[in-house]
Specification:
- The structure is a single chain.
- The chain is α/β, with parallel strands linked by helices and 216 residues long.
- It folds into two domains: 127 residues, Nucleotidyltransferase, domain 5; 80 residues, Nucleotidyltransferase, domain 5, CATH 3.30.420.
- The chain has seven helices and eleven strands.
- The strands form two sheets. Strands 6, 7, 8, 9, 10 and 11 form a six-stranded mixed sheet that branches.
- It starts with a strand and ends with a helix.
C-alpha cells in the first residue's frame, strides 16, 4: 500500500493506493500554499481510506521537474514522515507520473510542463494501454524543437500537463481537463514500478538552477 504526494504544480494531490485500486484521493487547485494544505489533505485521505500512516508500506513523491518551492515542500514532508516511521520512499519524475494519467491511450504520450519563455519540460512515452515505456529522458526544450521531434515519430500523440495545449495539429490530442494535471494516484502507479529506497537518498530534480542561484 502506497501513499502518494504531489506538490510539483498548481494542484496539490494526495492518494492512498494498492497496485490494483485507488483507496482514496484528493486533488485541489487552491490559492493557498502547498505547505498550508498538504498535511491536512494527507490526514483526510488516510481517514477516508481507513488506513493508518503506520500501515503504509512506502511513500511516492513528485521529485520534479516542477515548482521549486512546491517540490521542496512535498519532499520535506515525505522525508519527515519516512524518517519518523522508518518507511522507504520513491521520488518519481513528475513527467512520468503525468504520462500515467492517460495510460489507457495506446500509442505516444508527451508529458509537457511550462518552464520559461518558449521552453517546456518534456518527456515522451509509449503506452500499450496499461504499461508505460519511456522513450526519452526528461528534458527542457523549445516548444518548436519538441514538436519537430514528435512529428518525426509515427502515430498520434496524447499531450498531458499544464502546457499540453502548446502542441497543436492534427496528430496532437490534449488530455481532458480531469486528467491533464498532476494526480497522486498516477504517481503511485509509477511508483509501484520502481524500487523504494531510504529517505536520505531522496532529492529533487529541478532541471534548472533557481532564481537565487542565477543571481549569484
Amino acid at each position: 500500500m502506497m501513499l502518494g504526494i504531489d506538490t510539483s504544480g498548481k494542484t496539490a494531490s494526495v492518494a492512498v493506493c494498492t497496485e490494483n485500486a485507488v483507496l482514496a484521493q484528493t486533488t485541489v487547485y487552491t490559492k493557498l500554499t502547498h505547505s498550508q494544505v498538504i498535511l491536512p489533505i494527507c490526514k483526510d485521505v488516510l481517514k477516508s481510506a481507513e488506513v493508518e500512516l503506520s500501515e503504509i508500506d512506502g511513500i511516492s513523491v513528485a521529485a520534479g521537474p516542477g515548482s521549486y518551492t512546491g517540490l521542496r515542500i512535498g519532499i520535506a514532508a515525505v522525508k519527515a514522515m519516512c524518517f519518523a516511521l522508518d518507511k522507504p520512499c520513491i521520488g518519481v519524475s513528475t513527467l512520468e507520473s503525468l504520462a500515467y494519467n492517460v495510460s489507457l491511450h495506446k500509442g505516444l504520450i508527451c508529458a509537457i510542463m511550462a518552464a520559461r519563455l518558449d521552453l517546456v519540460y518534456c518527456a515522451v512515452f509509449r503506452s500499450d494501454g496499461r504499461n508505460i515505456t519511456r522513450l526519452s529522458a526528461d528534458e527542457i526544450l523549445p516548444i518548436s524543437e519538441l514538436k519537430s521531434r514528435l512529428e518525426a515519430m509515427d502515430g498520434d500523440v496524447v499531450t498531458v500537463g499544464d502546457a499540453a495545449e502548446k502542441l497543436t495539429g492534427e496528430r496532437f490530442m490534449t488530455a481532458p481537463p480531469h486528467l491533464k494535471l498532476q494526480l497522486a494516484s498516477s504517481l503511485c502507479a509509477a511508483g509501484f514500478t520502481k524500487e523504494l529506497y531510504s529517505p536520505d537518498k531522496l532529492e529533487a530534480a529541478y532541471m534548472e538552477i533557481t532564481k537565487a542561484e542565477k543571481e549569484l
